Amino acid sequence: MAAPAPGAPGTGPQLSDLAPVKLFPVTLPTTEPPAPLPDPGPAPPQGHAAEDGHDVPDIPYDYFWAVDDAMPALDRSFAVSGSGLLGPQERKRKSASHGRWLPPASRDPWTLGSRNWRYSDAEGLNLTLGNEEIEIPAWGRAVRLGGVSLSQSSLVSSDYADSWRYSLSLGALDQTTAEQGDLVYGETAGNLVLRYGLNRDLSIESQTQLAPDLATHGIGGKYQTGWGAWSAGVARATQGLYTGWRYQAAYTVKVLDDVELSWRNERYTPGFVDLSRYGADASNGGTVQTVSAKLPLGRWGDLSGSFQNESVGSGAARRSFGLAQQFWYSPNLRIGLKAQREVVTGDYDIGIRFSVPIY
């Protein structure tokens, strides 16, 4: 066959068919020249109108930040990684006490003491199981009971005006002495104290004590002034064939905002016996004068001193003075110091007590 002549159009493969890039015709788009935007019209409604004329958004209020929303975050610890987010092991932060060696405050309503187990809630209810010093009026005398104590006050949710408080203790008399060292309990007993506050300065108190063959009832009051607090009370006791009365008056004042001074005068007639003198001879009356002072020492506790002069109808007299102090030496060690001296007999007593909490 005869080959086509060079340059003849059209027939057979061409050299341009072997090129890697092929060209095709493209139509270029045309754009309009820029023009200014039109004026914005009224904005569409974003919510509904409230009564005061302001727009209220249609977003649920659960998505808005409130003041109370910050409270849960204050009780949490942030991640150590520094991202600002709560870590996977979140734990509540414990508030530190004012004292250096005091144990940290706990949010647990149950607390374990050296002689008792105590429960306290936010409503002002307190329950104690174990050994505790009973609640007394300002003019009363303290004594320890081993058993159950229940108390509650309205001051948690109300003001001083028309406030009330009650305290009930049931158990056995604690007759343990420092010389023996062993736990010694006596007869079963009960103590009830009711307090009603007319206002911030004036309150009325009553006390009832019961034990085998003993019933004591008392009433009194406390008045707070700018120069201190006055308290007075009268009580009547019946034990077997004996019936007697007790009259008390006390005054407490603070000096230099730190030192607290107290004075108390007590007179009881023959036949009067309460829980603090249970089992004593009721045939004689007597008088008791007590002067005490207390000085706070910060983390070293409170240093207290007292002088007591007691005389009975039979002519016997007793005069004594003493010093006492308790403080936390470390988070797991509490130290108590006590010294007492009898003026008439010359006897003295010096002691130190170490308390170690067990958890």
UniProtKB/TrEMBL annotation:
**Superkingdom of this protein's organism:** Bacteria
Biased composition range(s): Pro residues: 31-45
The record's region (Disordered) falls at: 1-54, 82-105
Q: What is this protein's name? A: Uncharacterized protein
